[in-house]
Amino acid sequence: MQDNSIGNIGNNGVSLLSSDTHVHEVVKTAHEELRQLMKQRADIMKRIGTLKQTIAGLANLFGDEILGEDLLELVDRKTTGRQPGFTKACRMVLMEAGSALSVREVCQRIQDRAPAVLLRHKDPLASVTTVLNRLVDYGEAQSEVRENGRRAWLWVSEPPRGSLTQGSVPEPAISHL
To answer: Among 18, 35, 48, 114, which one is most buried in terms of CB atoms within 10 A?
Structure first.
């Protein structure tokens, strides 16, 4: 009897046969597809942030009444009386900042804007740090180290195609996945 094992032991302790190399190909293919999907998700989240900023800018110029109820909700401007989520608050602070912010600066801006959001957290600085790092993982933000050695976070969005001035309309976005 011929031994066709290639010396690898699988998770269940069984030797993988050389004829089972297709399993390695399936894993390799699945890994590549997962990597591509994660990149696409990051790109989509960046694009969503850019579109929300564009719509919010137009609403600031022309008033929220130009937006329908569903669009107000999608861009987080609908006043439902409900407190916005903690992650959403961190996102909005970064989106509106225009420059990198430290954890303390993000906390202060949330405190100024929606103090009740912070009251639900025992250690707001730790909670904000966790959310900011998660936004980096999602591809929505990036982390940088300041001259003082402290970290700061910056919202990542596509550069504007042209400045929005009163009366101008942004160029429509076309995205292909």
So the answer is: 114
Split into its structural domains, the chain has a count of: 2
> Which residues have CB under 8 Å from 7's CB, separation 6+?
15
For residue 150, the one-letter residue type is R
Report the alpha-carbon distance of residue 35 to residue 71 in Å, rounded: 31
Q: What residue numbers bound the domain in which 145 lies?
A: 84-161
Q: Does the predicted model carry a pTM greater than 0.85? A: no
pLDDT tens digits, one per residue of 132-170: 999 988 888 999 999 999 999 999 865 434 433 333 333
Cα(105)–Cα(129) distance, integer angstroms: 11
